[in-house]
């Protein structure tokens, strides 16, 4: 039986609870393939599962939801994938590994003109941008939106994509350098929230009208001020909590702030079937192939240094997309 290296946690805690371990790697079971990873995506959901903010389904838990690589073996009954296929996925625990087995229902084939490292950098973040802009709230010409963490991995993709869809795109970022980065990725206006009140600036930019939709992955630090940025009957989309969870949310505040809508979506509910997954990934691949959206990897770490990568992400020392390289 082959061996592989995988980062697992046996309990919740800080980055130090992540352990690189050697484990057995059996041949792929029926409906599975075996993949050798070329690159692995780093995402806040990995931090949430490690810390305990999201409840781990079991222990020891192999971390990581997103990666790309090459199929090295195929299990019984698999007819739509072959050895040598370049594939990517977002949503199956165990991406922080050199090799792994995975059910084919999680996989999509990567077009030949997209490098595997690019695919690993964009699957979870890019499909998140896809569902947010195309399905949670339909963005197009005439729409004005606010996207928090504009210089983050999802933010840099969403800014370019929203601009390509014809929207007016406002972002927030936490430093002058991150403001400049976001402005280079589709944003019409970027507010440095470390220096300005973002709700006041949004009102100023929009002539007092507010925006149609706020996309908020920050959570505690941006609530309830995100609601003050919205037009009457606007939509607040909270899809993460990098600064901590929002507590004691009172539905009446939506009435008080202008009959607002609120939703708490997740990618995995939007790609829960193979058809939805292929549709979302196909839209992402198409917008990248058209050069309307550029995928830039801003940091890479060896897989063995995943703990340091988590520390840097949590301390906001990173921007854009981060990859782990096995």
UniProtKB/TrEMBL annotation:
- Domain named Enoyl reductase (ER): residues: 13-324
Q: Name one GO cellular component term.
A: cytosol
Q: State the taxonomy lineage.
A: Bacteria, Pseudomonadati, Pseudomonadota, Alphaproteobacteria, Hyphomicrobiales
Leader peptide range in chain numbering: none
Top-rank lineage group of the source organism: Bacteria
Arranged from A to Z, the UniProt key words for this protein are: NADP, Oxidoreductase
| Molecular function per GO | mRNA 3'-UTR AU-rich region binding; NADPH binding; quinone reductase (NADPH) activity
Task: Please report a single Pfam family linked to this protein.
Answer: ADH_zinc_N
TM ranges: none
Q: What is this protein called?
A: NADPH2:quinone reductase
Q: Which NCBIfam families match?
A: PRK10754.1 (NF008024)
Q: Which InterPro entries match?
A: ADH-like_C, ADH-like_N, ER, GroES-like_sf, NAD(P)-bd_dom_sf, QOR-like
């Amino acid at each position: 039986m082959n061996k592989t290296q995988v980062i697992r946690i046996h309990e919740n805690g800080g980055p130090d609870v992540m352990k690189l371990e050697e484990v057995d790697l059996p041949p792929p079971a029926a409906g599975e393939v075996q993949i050798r990873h070329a690159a692995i995506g780093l995402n806040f959901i990995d931090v949430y599962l490690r810390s305990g903010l999201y409840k781990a389904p079991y222990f020891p838990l192999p971390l990581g939801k997103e990666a790309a690589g090459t199929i090295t073996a195929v299990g019984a009954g698999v007819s739509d994938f072959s050895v040598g296929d370049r594939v990517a996925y977002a949503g199956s625990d165990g991406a922080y590994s050199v090799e792994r087995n995975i059910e084919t229902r999680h996989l999509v084939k990567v077009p030949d003109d997209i490098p595997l490292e690019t695919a690993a950098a964009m699957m979870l973040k890019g499909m998140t941008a896809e569902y947010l802009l195309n399905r949670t709230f339909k963005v197009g010409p005439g729409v004005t939106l606010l996207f928090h963490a504009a210089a983050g991995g999802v933010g840099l993709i969403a800014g370019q994509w929203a601009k390509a869809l014809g929207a007016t795109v406002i972002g927030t970022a936490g430093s002058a350098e991150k403001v400049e980065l976001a402005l280079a990725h589709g944003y019409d206006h970027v507010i440095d929230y470390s220096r300005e009140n973002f709700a006041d600036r949004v009102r100023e930019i929009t002539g007092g009208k507010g925006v149609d939709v706020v996309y908020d992955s920050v959570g505690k630090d941006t609530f309830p001020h995100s609601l003050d940025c919205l037009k009457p009957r606007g939509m607040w989309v909270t899809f993460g909590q990098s600064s901590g969870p929002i507590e004691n949310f009172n539905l009446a505040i939506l009435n008080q702030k202008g009959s607002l809508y609120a939703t708490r979506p997740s990618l995995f509910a939007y790609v829960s079937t193979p058809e939805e997954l292929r549709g979302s990934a196909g839209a992402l691949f198409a917008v990248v192939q058209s050069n309307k959206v550029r995928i830039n990897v801003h940091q890479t770490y060896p897989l063995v240094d995943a703990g340091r990568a988590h520390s840097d992400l949590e301390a906001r020392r990173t921007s854009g997309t981060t990859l782990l390289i096995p």
